[in-house]
Amino acid sequence: MVDKKNITGIILAGGKSSRMGTDKGFLLLNDKPFVQYSIDALQPLVSEIIIVSDDSKYDIFGLKRVDDITKNAGPVAGICSGLEASFSEYNIILSCDVPLITSKILQKLIDAIDDTSEIIQVESKGKTMPLIALYKKQIINTFKTLLQEDERRLRVAIMNCISKNIVLEKKQEFSTMNVNTQTELKAIENANYY
Fold first, then answer.
1. The pTM is what?
2. Cβ contacts of 50 within 8 Å, gap of 6 or more
């Protein structure tokens, strides 16, 4: 069992949110900002939470915030930025647009830690979810090298590491729903998932 002292939570809140038209981290569900759902799910499992965003508005959450080391380079850069600021060997990476995520799902990633896997990601509805995943700090050099080569696709970066997937049960799949559009936000509100 890995001690939470060795685990950091990293929330990626630096996306452009072009489909939503507004910063997704501050979208409200039940009067609570999306990013707060990520914080609440991580809090019981980690020793520190880092928010990766160039937007100082995130400072209101009272957590450590770091800027993206490479601007407009997507999640590969965001993950690098978070890992660079982390003191832990194990890091749970979470995007800020999965408001239904639970500590129980994230605990599955911790329970799956082994000696060889560098990345452990959730698999939901047959799709891997690299932004609901546990990353070992050691992958930072691989990711940095890819960024220097202008490779920004997260799937490619993961293929360069040793990864494994944790397949969710059908009844848990809703908690990984990510919200990219107003329609998806309405669907969550109407479904009363939370």
1. 0.93
2. 8, 9, 10, 11, 63, 64, 65, 66, 82, 85, 86
